[in-house]
Amino acid sequence: MRKKAIELQKELEKIVETVEKRGWTVSVTGDQKIRYIKRDGEDLNDLVEAINEAMKKVQKESAKKMMEMGGGLSGLLGGMK
């Protein structure tokens, strides 16, 4: 199960979507990490780092809450293995 999770994580990292709107360009990976944000071609690396750090913290806290509420995904899936 762990091996499959690692493989899935690697596949998600390969997915990239980039959107341009009104001078803004945002690129995000399938594992929900921001690759870059640009405004009229200017990189906003500090903003990217801050957002990714906040996302990591909230994902960690969310995972902790899920574990407290019934053992994570196994609880949601009725104990399927």
UniProtKB/TrEMBL annotation:
Coiled coil residues, start to end: 2-64
GO molecular function: DNA binding
Residue ranges of the TM segments: none
Keyword vocabulary terms for this entry: Coiled coil
Keyword Nucleotidyltransferase included in the entry's annotation: no
Family annotation (InterPro entries): YbaB-like_sf (IPR036894), YbaB/EbfC (IPR004401)
Entry keyword annotation includes Chloroplast: no
Record-given protein name: Nucleoid-associated protein
